[in-house]
Amino acid sequence: MIMEEPVFNSEEQLTEGASQAIASEADPLTVSPALAIPSSSKIHPGRRVEHEHWLSVIQWLCGTIVIAVFVITFLTQAFQIPSESMENTLLVGDYLLVDKVHFAESGLWGHLLPYRPISRGDIVVFRYPVRPTQHFVKRVVALPGDRVHLHEGRVYVNGQLVQDQAYAGHNPRQYDSYRDDFPNDVYISSDVNSTWWVQMHRTIRNGEVAVPANQYFVLGDNRDHSLDSRYWGFVPRENVIGRPLVIYWSMKQPEPSLAGAADGKLSSLVYRLTHLLENARWSRSLRVVR
Question: Taking Cα atoms as reference points, which of 215, 160, 151 lies closest to residue 184?
Answer without folding.
Answer: 151
